[in-house]
Amino acid sequence: MTGEKISFEDTSVAFASKSDAYLRKAHLIFQMMSNGTLVDFGTTWANVALKLRVPFAKTIIKNTVYSLFVGGETLDECESTIDNLGASNVKTILDYSVEGEKTEAGFEATKEEMFRIIDVTKTARYIPFVVIKLTGLGSFEVMRKVQAGESLSDEEQQAFESLKKRVYDICSRVDDIESKILIDGEESWIQDTIDDIVYEMMATFNKKRVVVYNTYQMYRHEMYNNLVEAHRQATEKGYQLGAKLVRGAYMEKERERAEELNYVDPIQPDKAATDRDYNEAVKFCLNNITSISTVVGTHNEKSSALTAELMEEKGLAKGDKRVYFSQLYGMSDNISFTLASLGYNVSKYVPYGPVRKVMPYLSRRAEENTSIAGQTSREYKLIKSELKRRKTIK
User: Fold this and answer.
1) Separation of alpha carbons 205 and 258, rounded Å
2) Domains of the chain from N-terminus onward
3) How far apart are CA 233 and CA 214, in angstroms?
4) Which of 5, 293, 294, 327 could form a disulfide linkage to 332, CB 3.0–4.6 angstroms apart?
5) What is the pLDDT of residues 3-18, one digit of tens each?
6) Alpha carbon 7 to chain centroid distance?
């Protein structure tokens, strides 16, 4: 027990694996992303240019913002990214970020891609989890109707059963290779439906060890209580809880819908409330470490340091497999690589997919970086600090 405070300021650790050329490119991109008007223009241009097949559009995108936030177009292309991260003790979570056709054929194609990811995971050294969004496996509208208590047609009922079967098949394969799966959080008006499916999977696969993790978006004011209740039910029914803690990614959409349909806004009143509940959720999970495995998914330095401090207080080894830290690829390298260098379990969400099909993800990434107060400027300042340290800029 050292009681030593973790600092995320050492850019020589954060960017040790990055070349000067990479950092200069990242410096420019984050500088541009701080300008909302420029982000709006850039995402519009990129989408139109790809749709019209403008010469060199794909090359430009792939060599700029895509290269910063995406691991590659295919699983094979991701190999070098996985190995580069692994060399610094940072693990990879492959995130198939293609928003495919919302048809049964499209959902089946996503399931087959998940099977390919699982096959890669089986033999990979640096992939501790797989991840899926249930809207990649089934109809958003059907899930919404189920949650709203609306009746389903025979075709919709069959679609819902097919969704649950796909989820079961994927979880079963993950269990077979002794890996773990994260189910991403989504919009509040389908999240209860997702929760029901995920807890059913936990009751099946989490009896001896944690295989399935649900996601708790702490920017929703009821989410801390949902986490506590989920743990109570897991204990009562005899399985362990897997909890991935995030702040959330649908705030503007949530507030707009609540106002439009005149129901109580599910979002916290302010960032301080979100931060408070997030940190309380971390404490709750670590206080119940014998029955909860946790992925602390955050770009917040204070929450990351708090988690490490609590682990030390409780006498948990830094490499305890029941606690993982996670950040998005291309962001918060100062958190990821610092924690990894100290021996903590760290993973990066690494999206992959063809440039054209990953554009919705990249558009959201750019917009979120612009809207999150201080996030882009923090990334920019850290990269600038490292370039100055290397004496490549003044």
Assistant:
1) 35
2) 1-67+369-394 (no CATH), 71-352 (3.20.20.220)
3) 14
4) 327
5) 568 999 999 999 999 9
6) 23
Backbone φ/ψ region at 267: left (φ over 0), alpha (ψ -120 to 50), beta: beta
Q: What is the mean pLDDT of the chain?
A: 92
Helix, strand, or coil (residue 18): coil
Q: What is the pLDDT of residues 61-93, one digit of tens each?
A: 898 889 999 999 999 999 999 999 999 999 999
Q: What is the dihedral of CA 267, 273, 278, 284, to 10 degrees?
A: -110
Amino acid at residue number 228: V
What are the angstrom distances between the C-alpha of 287 and each of 115, 166, 183, 223, 383?
35, 34, 23, 18, 36
Q: Which residues contact 298 (CB under 8 A, 6 or more apart)?
A: 245, 246, 247, 278, 304, 325, 326, 327, 335
Where do we find the tokens 């979570």?
93
In what helix (H) or strand (E) does residue 245 lie, and over which residues does it extend?
A: strand 241-246
Spatial strand order in the sheet of 346-352: 91-96, 346-352, 323-328, 292-297, 241-246, 212-217, 180-183, 129-132
- Report the distance separating Cα 146 and Cα 156, nearest Å: 10
For residue 345, give the 3-state DSSP assignment: coil
- Complete DSSP assignment for 65-115: HHHHH---SSTTTTHHHHHHHHTTT-EEEEEE-----SSHHHHHHHHHHHH
